[in-house]
Design goal:
The protein is built from two helices and twelve strands, in the order αββββαββββββββ. By secondary structure, the protein is an alpha+beta fold. It has one domain: endopeptidase fold (from Nostoc punctiforme) (Alpha-Beta Complex), CATH 3.90.1720. A hairpin with a 2-residue loop joins strand 1 and strand 2. It is globular, with a radius of gyration of 18 Å. The relative contact order is 0.15.
Length: about 190
């Protein structure tokens, strides 16, 4: 192999390893892992530190697998369990696994026990919907959030584990085009709704 190619490959491997290590460290000196940073409908959002950090599995008193503390999936499953009294039939999976690409807009996602909508969709997003973000090069697990406010041209989301300096709340634009509702973020695969 050419020396330049070998050096390039080593740089990519080392860079990726550095990113993986950085994602486990709590870079925010003012917050402790497990500290409450927000809440919606009396369900707390906890600070997770580095995005790859995990504080062990969270199980409900009746043994339902809520998820790995304090990942994004743990928050949305805890929110649905505590606020909407919903247990997902399949209790495992990463964020990206919550979206079933084989389903059509408005069909039931049997693994989650929820109606699945694509992006764009014939139905407008509503409060309590779960948005599912696709994976990226540096995040192979995807991301999930809860819609906490809907207006004519925007939605507000609440999330757990947005990164050590990320916000628990964000605004995303929505618009109607060709009789379909589009959530204006290319990473959003779709959403789930009770």
């Amino acid at each position: 192999m050419n020396r330049k190619i070998i050096i390039s490959i080593l740089i990519v491997i080392i860079s990726y390893a550095v990113v993986l290590i950085i994602k486990k460290v709590n870079w925010h000196s003012k917050l402790e892992v497990g500290e409450v940073v927000d809440a919606f409908n009396e369900v707390n959002v906890y600070y997770n530190g580095g995005v790859s950090n995990s504080e062990g599995r969270n199980l409900s008193v009746d043994g339902y697998n809520i998820g790995m503390k304090y990942q994004c999936v743990e928050f949305i499953k805890r929110y649905y369990y505590e606020h909407l009294n919903h247990k997902m039939p399949d209790t495992y999976g990463n964020a990206v696994d919550f979206y079933d690409k084989s389903l059509k807009d408005g069909n039931v996602n049997l693994k989650r026990g929820l109606v699945q909508f694509s992006n764009p969709s014939s139905m407008k997003p509503k409060e309590d919907d779960i948005l599912i973000f696709d994976k990226t090069f540096f995040n192979r697990y995807g991301h999930v959030v809860i819609v906490c406010k809907v207006q004519d041209s925007l939605i507000e989301i609440i999330q757990q584990n947005p990164g050590p300096f990320g916000s628990s709340r964000e605004i995303i634009k929505i618009r109607k085009q060709n009789n379909l509702w589009l959530i204006d973020n290319k990473r959003i695969l779709g959403r789930l709704s009770k």
